[in-house]
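SAMPLE LOG
Freezer: B-3
Tube label: C17
Construct: single chain, 440 aa
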Amino acid sequence: MEEHGRAMEGPPSHSENHVTKHSCSEPAVSVFSPLRLGQLNLRNRVVRAGCFEGLCHGGLVTDRLIEHHRRVAEGGVGMTTLAYCSVSEDGRAFGHELWMRPEIVPGLERFTRAVHAEGAAASIQLGHCGFFASPSVIGRRPLGCSPQLCLFRLSYCSEMTQEQITEKVEDFARAAVLARRAGFDAVEVHAGHGYLLSQFLSPWTNRRHDGYGGSLTNRLRFPVEVMSAVRAAVGPEFPVLVKMNQRDGMKGGLELEEAIRVARAFEAAGATALVPSCGFTASTPLYMLRGNVPTVEMAKAQEGFLYRIGLAMFGWAMVQRYPFEPLFLLDGARRIRDAVDIPVGYVGGVVSLEDMQQLIDEGFAFMQVGRATIRDPDFVRHLRSGEFAGSDCDHCNRCIATMSVTGVTCVSAALEPVPRPTPSPAPTRPHAEGRSDPLR
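STRUCTURE (predicted):
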Protein backbone atom coordinates (compact mmCIF):
# COMPACT_ATOMS: atom_id res chain seq x y z
CA MET A 1 0.00 0.00 0.00
CA GLU A 2 1.09 3.57 -0.60
CA GLU A 3 1.57 5.66 2.50
CA HIS A 4 -0.96 8.43 3.03
CA GLY A 5 -0.01 12.10 3.35
CA ARG A 6 2.41 13.00 6.13
CA ALA A 7 2.88 16.25 8.00
CA MET A 8 5.61 18.44 6.56
CA GLU A 9 7.36 21.31 8.31
CA GLY A 10 6.82 24.90 7.26
CA PRO A 11 3.91 26.51 5.46
CA PRO A 12 3.46 25.85 1.74
CA SER A 13 4.01 28.77 -0.57
CA HIS A 14 1.42 29.74 -3.16
CA SER A 15 3.68 28.44 -5.93
CA GLU A 16 3.91 25.02 -4.35
CA ASN A 17 0.15 24.55 -4.65
CA HIS A 18 -0.71 26.38 -7.86
CA VAL A 19 0.36 25.06 -11.23
CA THR A 20 1.18 27.31 -14.13
CA LYS A 21 0.75 26.41 -17.78
CA HIS A 22 3.64 24.76 -19.61
CA SER A 23 4.35 24.62 -23.29
CA CYS A 24 6.08 21.24 -23.34
CA SER A 25 4.20 18.21 -24.64
CA GLU A 26 4.40 16.37 -21.32
CA PRO A 27 2.87 18.26 -18.38
CA ALA A 28 5.37 19.28 -15.71
CA VAL A 29 2.63 18.60 -13.16
CA SER A 30 0.00 15.95 -13.80
CA VAL A 31 -3.20 14.83 -12.18
CA PHE A 32 -1.16 12.14 -10.43
CA SER A 33 1.56 14.44 -9.10
CA PRO A 34 1.66 14.84 -5.32
CA LEU A 35 0.23 17.98 -3.74
CA ARG A 36 1.07 19.74 -0.52
CA LEU A 37 -1.76 21.46 1.39
CA GLY A 38 -0.61 23.01 4.63
CA GLN A 39 1.12 20.23 6.54
CA LEU A 40 -0.40 17.53 4.35
CA ASN A 41 1.15 15.81 1.36
CA LEU A 42 -1.38 14.13 -0.95
CA ARG A 43 -0.36 11.36 -3.33
CA ASN A 44 -2.30 12.91 -6.23
CA ARG A 45 -4.64 15.77 -7.12
CA VAL A 46 -7.97 13.88 -7.08
CA VAL A 47 -10.19 14.40 -4.03
CA ARG A 48 -13.46 12.59 -3.46
CA ALA A 49 -16.04 15.32 -2.95
CA GLY A 50 -18.35 15.31 0.03
CA CYS A 51 -21.36 13.31 -1.24
CA PHE A 52 -23.98 12.62 1.40
CA GLU A 53 -23.73 8.90 2.09
CA GLY A 54 -26.92 8.24 4.09
CA LEU A 55 -24.97 5.61 6.04
CA CYS A 56 -24.73 7.11 9.54
CA HIS A 57 -27.76 5.49 11.15
CA GLY A 58 -28.43 6.83 14.60
CA GLY A 59 -25.95 9.61 13.92
CA LEU A 60 -23.09 7.12 14.30
CA VAL A 61 -20.19 5.88 12.21
CA THR A 62 -21.18 2.53 10.69
CA ASP A 63 -19.26 -0.30 9.05
CA ARG A 64 -20.97 0.49 5.73
CA LEU A 65 -19.79 4.10 5.91
CA ILE A 66 -16.21 3.01 6.58
CA GLU A 67 -16.28 0.43 3.80
CA HIS A 68 -17.73 2.93 1.32
CA HIS A 69 -14.80 5.30 1.82
CA ARG A 70 -12.22 2.55 2.15
CA ARG A 71 -13.19 1.36 -1.35
CA VAL A 72 -12.86 4.87 -2.76
CA ALA A 73 -9.46 5.20 -1.08
CA GLU A 74 -8.42 1.80 -2.45
CA GLY A 75 -9.56 3.05 -5.86
CA GLY A 76 -6.81 5.65 -5.94
CA VAL A 77 -8.02 9.08 -4.77
CA GLY A 78 -5.55 11.33 -2.99
CA MET A 79 -8.09 12.19 -0.31
CA THR A 80 -11.67 11.21 0.44
CA THR A 81 -14.17 13.49 2.17
CA LEU A 82 -16.62 12.22 4.77
CA ALA A 83 -19.69 14.22 3.84
CA TYR A 84 -21.72 16.47 6.08
CA CYS A 85 -21.07 16.13 9.75
CA SER A 86 -23.14 18.62 11.72
CA VAL A 87 -21.22 20.61 14.29
CA SER A 88 -24.14 20.29 16.71
CA GLU A 89 -27.23 18.17 17.24
CA ASP A 90 -29.59 20.89 16.00
CA GLY A 91 -27.96 21.12 12.58
CA ARG A 92 -29.25 17.87 11.09
CA ALA A 93 -31.72 17.31 8.26
CA PHE A 94 -31.88 13.53 8.73
CA GLY A 95 -31.58 11.14 11.64
CA HIS A 96 -28.83 9.28 9.79
CA GLU A 97 -26.49 12.27 9.66
CA LEU A 98 -23.44 12.52 11.86
CA TRP A 99 -23.20 15.20 14.49
CA MET A 100 -19.84 15.79 16.09
CA ARG A 101 -19.42 14.81 19.74
CA PRO A 102 -16.81 12.90 21.77
CA GLU A 103 -18.89 9.70 21.67
CA ILE A 104 -18.32 9.22 17.92
CA VAL A 105 -14.55 9.82 17.97
CA PRO A 106 -13.70 6.08 18.32
CA GLY A 107 -15.81 5.35 15.23
CA LEU A 108 -14.17 8.20 13.35
CA GLU A 109 -10.77 6.81 14.34
CA ARG A 110 -11.72 3.48 12.74
CA PHE A 111 -12.76 5.45 9.64
CA THR A 112 -9.46 7.32 9.31
CA ARG A 113 -7.39 4.19 9.96
CA ALA A 114 -9.21 2.34 7.18
CA VAL A 115 -8.67 5.19 4.70
CA HIS A 116 -5.02 5.63 5.65
CA ALA A 117 -4.38 1.91 5.23
CA GLU A 118 -5.29 2.30 1.55
CA GLY A 119 -2.82 5.16 1.03
CA ALA A 120 -5.29 8.07 0.97
CA ALA A 121 -5.85 11.02 3.28
CA ALA A 122 -9.17 11.67 5.01
CA SER A 123 -11.12 14.92 5.28
CA ILE A 124 -14.42 15.60 7.01
CA GLN A 125 -17.00 18.18 5.98
CA LEU A 126 -18.31 20.26 8.89
CA GLY A 127 -21.51 22.26 8.65
CA HIS A 128 -24.96 23.08 9.96
CA CYS A 129 -28.25 22.92 8.07
CA GLY A 130 -29.66 26.10 9.53
CA PHE A 131 -33.26 26.75 8.52
CA PHE A 132 -33.71 23.46 6.67
CA ALA A 133 -32.81 21.29 9.66
CA SER A 134 -35.62 18.84 10.34
CA PRO A 135 -37.81 19.68 13.36
CA SER A 136 -38.73 16.01 13.74
CA VAL A 137 -35.05 15.05 13.93
CA ILE A 138 -33.74 17.80 16.19
CA GLY A 139 -36.88 17.99 18.33
CA ARG A 140 -37.25 21.76 18.16
CA ARG A 141 -37.71 24.69 15.84
CA PRO A 142 -34.73 25.11 13.49
CA LEU A 143 -32.34 28.05 13.72
CA GLY A 144 -31.63 30.28 10.76
CA CYS A 145 -30.04 33.52 9.73
CA SER A 146 -33.46 35.17 9.38
CA PRO A 147 -37.02 33.86 9.78
CA GLN A 148 -37.54 31.58 6.78
CA LEU A 149 -40.15 29.11 5.56
CA CYS A 150 -38.71 25.80 4.40
CA LEU A 151 -41.06 24.22 1.87
CA PHE A 152 -39.24 20.90 2.00
CA ARG A 153 -39.86 20.65 5.76
CA LEU A 154 -43.01 22.78 5.99
CA SER A 155 -41.24 24.48 8.89
CA TYR A 156 -40.40 28.03 9.90
CA CYS A 157 -37.10 28.82 11.59
CA SER A 158 -36.14 31.21 14.37
CA GLU A 159 -33.68 34.03 13.74
CA MET A 160 -30.42 33.34 15.54
CA THR A 161 -29.55 35.59 18.46
CA GLN A 162 -26.06 36.93 19.13
CA GLU A 163 -25.66 34.31 21.85
CA GLN A 164 -26.60 31.52 19.42
CA ILE A 165 -24.23 32.86 16.77
CA THR A 166 -21.38 32.81 19.30
CA GLU A 167 -22.37 29.27 20.31
CA LYS A 168 -22.22 28.06 16.70
CA VAL A 169 -18.79 29.63 16.19
CA GLU A 170 -17.63 27.62 19.20
CA ASP A 171 -19.36 24.48 17.86
CA PHE A 172 -17.44 24.69 14.57
CA ALA A 173 -14.14 25.12 16.39
CA ARG A 174 -14.85 22.26 18.79
CA ALA A 175 -15.90 19.97 15.92
CA ALA A 176 -12.65 20.69 14.06
CA VAL A 177 -10.59 19.81 17.14
CA LEU A 178 -12.45 16.51 17.55
CA ALA A 179 -11.94 15.75 13.86
CA ARG A 180 -8.20 16.29 14.18
CA ARG A 181 -8.18 14.11 17.31
CA ALA A 182 -9.92 11.34 15.35
CA GLY A 183 -7.09 11.28 12.80
CA PHE A 184 -8.53 13.36 9.98
CA ASP A 185 -5.89 15.03 7.83
CA ALA A 186 -8.09 18.00 6.92
CA VAL A 187 -11.48 19.55 7.55
CA GLU A 188 -13.78 21.16 5.02
CA VAL A 189 -15.91 24.00 6.38
CA HIS A 190 -19.19 23.95 4.49
CA ALA A 191 -20.03 27.53 3.59
CA GLY A 192 -21.94 26.75 0.40
CA HIS A 193 -25.04 24.99 -0.92
CA GLY A 194 -27.44 26.96 1.27
CA TYR A 195 -26.18 25.58 4.59
CA LEU A 196 -26.03 27.87 7.62
CA LEU A 197 -22.89 29.84 6.71
CA SER A 198 -24.19 30.17 3.16
CA GLN A 199 -27.52 31.43 4.53
CA PHE A 200 -25.67 34.31 6.18
CA LEU A 201 -23.74 35.08 2.99
CA SER A 202 -26.78 35.04 0.71
CA PRO A 203 -28.98 38.14 0.44
CA TRP A 204 -31.83 35.74 -0.39
CA THR A 205 -31.86 34.38 3.16
CA ASN A 206 -30.08 37.11 5.11
CA ARG A 207 -32.57 39.85 5.90
CA ARG A 208 -31.06 40.84 9.24
CA HIS A 209 -30.79 44.44 10.38
CA ASP A 210 -27.89 44.06 12.80
CA GLY A 211 -24.15 43.67 12.35
CA TYR A 212 -24.66 40.33 10.59
CA GLY A 213 -26.94 41.55 7.80
CA GLY A 214 -27.23 44.09 5.03
CA SER A 215 -23.86 44.80 3.43
CA LEU A 216 -21.59 41.99 2.30
CA THR A 217 -19.13 43.02 5.00
CA ASN A 218 -21.83 42.31 7.58
CA ARG A 219 -23.04 39.13 5.89
CA LEU A 220 -19.46 37.85 5.95
CA ARG A 221 -19.06 38.45 9.68
CA PHE A 222 -20.37 35.11 10.99
CA PRO A 223 -18.71 32.88 8.34
CA VAL A 224 -15.40 34.67 8.86
CA GLU A 225 -15.74 34.34 12.63
CA VAL A 226 -16.22 30.59 12.10
CA MET A 227 -13.20 30.29 9.81
CA SER A 228 -11.01 32.29 12.16
CA ALA A 229 -12.12 30.21 15.17
CA VAL A 230 -11.46 26.94 13.35
CA ARG A 231 -8.02 28.11 12.32
CA ALA A 232 -7.18 29.16 15.87
CA ALA A 233 -8.43 25.83 17.23
CA VAL A 234 -6.49 23.51 14.89
CA GLY A 235 -3.28 25.51 14.53
CA PRO A 236 -1.59 27.31 11.63
CA GLU A 237 -0.65 24.34 9.42
CA PHE A 238 -3.60 21.97 9.70
CA PRO A 239 -5.46 22.01 6.34
CA VAL A 240 -8.81 23.82 6.47
CA LEU A 241 -10.66 23.81 3.16
CA VAL A 242 -13.73 25.96 2.58
CA LYS A 243 -16.52 24.93 0.24
CA MET A 244 -18.30 28.08 -0.89
CA ASN A 245 -20.70 29.22 -3.59
CA GLN A 246 -19.88 31.03 -6.79
CA ARG A 247 -23.61 31.59 -7.21
CA ASP A 248 -26.70 30.48 -5.34
CA GLY A 249 -28.62 29.97 -8.57
CA MET A 250 -31.78 31.98 -7.92
CA LYS A 251 -32.84 35.58 -8.24
CA GLY A 252 -31.73 37.60 -5.24
CA GLY A 253 -29.03 35.13 -4.25
CA LEU A 254 -25.26 35.44 -4.04
CA GLU A 255 -23.62 36.19 -7.39
CA LEU A 256 -20.07 35.82 -8.66
CA GLU A 257 -18.82 39.35 -8.03
CA GLU A 258 -19.69 39.07 -4.35
CA ALA A 259 -18.37 35.50 -4.25
CA ILE A 260 -14.94 36.80 -5.26
CA ARG A 261 -14.97 39.07 -2.22
CA VAL A 262 -16.13 36.14 -0.08
CA ALA A 263 -13.17 34.08 -1.33
CA ARG A 264 -10.72 36.82 -0.38
CA ALA A 265 -12.29 37.10 3.07
CA PHE A 266 -11.91 33.36 3.71
CA GLU A 267 -8.30 33.58 2.55
CA ALA A 268 -7.63 36.43 4.98
CA ALA A 269 -9.29 34.43 7.80
CA GLY A 270 -6.85 31.54 7.35
CA ALA A 271 -8.35 29.10 4.86
CA THR A 272 -5.80 26.69 3.36
CA ALA A 273 -7.76 26.19 0.13
CA LEU A 274 -11.10 27.03 -1.44
CA VAL A 275 -13.57 24.89 -3.39
CA PRO A 276 -16.01 27.15 -5.31
CA SER A 277 -19.29 25.33 -5.92
CA CYS A 278 -22.86 26.56 -6.41
CA GLY A 279 -26.49 25.92 -5.59
CA PHE A 280 -28.89 26.18 -2.67
CA THR A 281 -30.20 22.93 -1.21
CA ALA A 282 -33.58 24.38 -0.20
CA SER A 283 -34.16 26.24 -3.48
CA THR A 284 -31.96 25.07 -6.37
CA PRO A 285 -30.81 21.61 -5.25
CA LEU A 286 -29.68 20.26 -8.63
CA TYR A 287 -27.91 23.45 -9.70
CA MET A 288 -24.76 22.04 -8.12
CA LEU A 289 -25.06 18.71 -9.95
CA ARG A 290 -26.84 19.17 -13.30
CA GLY A 291 -28.40 16.33 -15.25
CA ASN A 292 -31.65 14.42 -14.89
CA VAL A 293 -34.27 15.07 -12.20
CA PRO A 294 -35.32 11.64 -10.89
CA THR A 295 -38.72 12.69 -9.53
CA VAL A 296 -40.12 9.13 -9.41
CA GLU A 297 -37.23 7.89 -7.28
CA MET A 298 -37.34 11.03 -5.15
CA ALA A 299 -41.05 10.50 -4.48
CA LYS A 300 -40.52 6.88 -3.48
CA ALA A 301 -37.83 7.95 -1.01
CA GLN A 302 -40.20 10.22 0.97
CA GLU A 303 -41.49 8.93 4.29
CA GLY A 304 -44.90 10.59 4.35
CA PHE A 305 -47.71 9.63 1.94
CA LEU A 306 -48.57 13.25 1.15
CA TYR A 307 -44.92 14.05 0.45
CA ARG A 308 -44.71 11.10 -1.95
CA ILE A 309 -47.85 12.11 -3.81
CA GLY A 310 -46.90 15.77 -3.92
CA LEU A 311 -43.40 15.12 -5.24
CA ALA A 312 -44.63 12.59 -7.79
CA MET A 313 -47.20 15.06 -9.14
CA PHE A 314 -45.35 18.36 -8.81
CA GLY A 315 -41.69 17.39 -8.58
CA TRP A 316 -41.10 18.77 -12.06
CA ALA A 317 -42.03 22.22 -10.75
CA MET A 318 -40.35 21.94 -7.34
CA VAL A 319 -36.94 20.67 -8.51
CA GLN A 320 -35.54 22.51 -11.52
CA ARG A 321 -33.57 20.75 -14.22
CA TYR A 322 -30.19 22.06 -15.35
CA PRO A 323 -28.51 20.41 -18.37
CA PHE A 324 -25.20 18.74 -17.63
CA GLU A 325 -22.03 19.66 -19.45
CA PRO A 326 -18.42 18.90 -18.50
CA LEU A 327 -16.70 21.51 -16.31
CA PHE A 328 -19.90 23.52 -15.98
CA LEU A 329 -18.48 25.79 -13.24
CA LEU A 330 -15.16 26.54 -14.90
CA ASP A 331 -15.60 30.21 -15.79
CA GLY A 332 -16.55 31.30 -12.28
CA ALA A 333 -13.90 29.06 -10.72
CA ARG A 334 -11.27 30.76 -12.88
CA ARG A 335 -12.32 34.16 -11.60
CA ILE A 336 -12.03 33.04 -7.98
CA ARG A 337 -8.73 31.24 -8.62
CA ASP A 338 -7.26 34.42 -10.06
CA ALA A 339 -8.51 36.54 -7.16
CA VAL A 340 -6.71 34.74 -4.32
CA ASP A 341 -3.22 33.54 -3.45
CA ILE A 342 -4.17 30.24 -1.85
CA PRO A 343 -4.88 26.95 -3.65
CA VAL A 344 -8.26 26.63 -5.34
CA GLY A 345 -9.75 23.23 -6.08
CA TYR A 346 -12.28 22.69 -8.83
CA VAL A 347 -15.62 20.92 -8.51
CA GLY A 348 -18.41 20.63 -11.09
CA GLY A 349 -18.67 18.21 -14.00
CA VAL A 350 -15.25 16.53 -13.91
CA VAL A 351 -15.75 13.39 -15.99
CA SER A 352 -12.49 12.57 -17.79
CA LEU A 353 -8.74 12.54 -17.46
CA GLU A 354 -8.63 15.25 -20.09
CA ASP A 355 -10.85 17.45 -17.90
CA MET A 356 -8.56 16.85 -14.95
CA GLN A 357 -5.35 17.65 -16.79
CA GLN A 358 -6.88 20.80 -18.25
CA LEU A 359 -7.69 21.96 -14.73
CA ILE A 360 -4.16 21.28 -13.51
CA ASP A 361 -2.68 23.02 -16.56
CA GLU A 362 -4.84 26.06 -15.85
CA GLY A 363 -3.59 26.35 -12.28
CA PHE A 364 -6.20 24.59 -10.16
CA ALA A 365 -4.48 22.77 -7.31
CA PHE A 366 -6.80 19.75 -7.25
CA MET A 367 -10.24 18.63 -8.34
CA GLN A 368 -13.13 17.13 -6.42
CA VAL A 369 -15.02 14.26 -8.01
CA GLY A 370 -18.28 12.79 -6.75
CA ARG A 371 -20.62 10.78 -8.97
CA ALA A 372 -17.82 9.20 -11.00
CA THR A 373 -16.51 7.54 -7.83
CA ILE A 374 -20.01 6.48 -6.81
CA ARG A 375 -20.44 4.89 -10.22
CA ASP A 376 -17.02 3.22 -9.96
CA PRO A 377 -14.94 3.40 -6.75
CA ASP A 378 -11.88 2.41 -8.84
CA PHE A 379 -12.35 5.40 -11.16
CA VAL A 380 -8.99 7.03 -10.40
CA ARG A 381 -7.05 3.78 -10.57
CA HIS A 382 -8.62 2.96 -13.94
CA LEU A 383 -7.73 6.40 -15.28
CA ARG A 384 -4.15 6.05 -14.14
CA SER A 385 -3.76 2.59 -15.64
CA GLY A 386 -5.19 3.77 -18.97
CA GLU A 387 -8.08 1.30 -18.85
CA PHE A 388 -10.41 4.11 -19.82
CA ALA A 389 -10.30 7.86 -20.36
CA GLY A 390 -13.39 8.96 -18.46
CA SER A 391 -16.46 8.05 -16.46
CA ASP A 392 -19.56 6.55 -18.05
CA CYS A 393 -21.83 8.06 -15.37
CA ASP A 394 -24.93 9.26 -17.24
CA HIS A 395 -25.85 11.87 -14.57
CA CYS A 396 -29.25 10.31 -14.00
CA ASN A 397 -28.95 11.45 -10.35
CA ARG A 398 -30.83 8.43 -9.06
CA CYS A 399 -27.99 8.04 -6.55
CA ILE A 400 -29.06 11.20 -4.73
CA ALA A 401 -32.74 10.24 -4.89
CA THR A 402 -32.18 6.99 -3.03
CA MET A 403 -29.29 7.89 -0.71
CA SER A 404 -31.52 8.72 2.25
CA VAL A 405 -33.21 5.30 2.01
CA THR A 406 -30.61 2.74 0.97
CA GLY A 407 -27.42 4.76 1.33
CA VAL A 408 -25.61 6.29 -1.61
CA THR A 409 -25.00 3.88 -4.45
CA CYS A 410 -25.03 3.92 -8.23
CA VAL A 411 -28.47 2.66 -9.20
CA SER A 412 -27.34 2.03 -12.77
CA ALA A 413 -24.35 -0.01 -11.62
CA ALA A 414 -26.65 -2.07 -9.42
CA LEU A 415 -28.70 -2.94 -12.50
CA GLU A 416 -25.75 -3.66 -14.78
CA PRO A 417 -21.99 -3.93 -14.17
CA VAL A 418 -19.74 -0.97 -14.78
CA PRO A 419 -18.45 -1.46 -18.36
CA ARG A 420 -14.74 -1.86 -18.82
CA PRO A 421 -14.15 -0.92 -22.50
CA THR A 422 -12.26 2.33 -22.96
CA PRO A 423 -14.76 5.04 -23.96
CA SER A 424 -13.99 7.60 -26.61
CA PRO A 425 -12.21 10.62 -25.14
CA ALA A 426 -14.30 13.72 -24.66
CA PRO A 427 -13.88 16.38 -27.37
CA THR A 428 -10.93 18.65 -26.76
CA ARG A 429 -11.95 21.97 -25.29
CA PRO A 430 -9.79 25.06 -25.72
CA HIS A 431 -7.97 26.40 -22.68
CA ALA A 432 -9.07 29.94 -23.42
CA GLU A 433 -9.64 32.25 -20.54
CA GLY A 434 -12.87 33.61 -22.03
CA ARG A 435 -15.65 34.67 -19.75
CA SER A 436 -18.77 33.40 -21.53
CA ASP A 437 -20.85 32.04 -18.68
CA PRO A 438 -22.71 28.71 -19.00
CA LEU A 439 -24.62 29.34 -15.78
CA ARG A 440 -26.78 32.17 -17.09
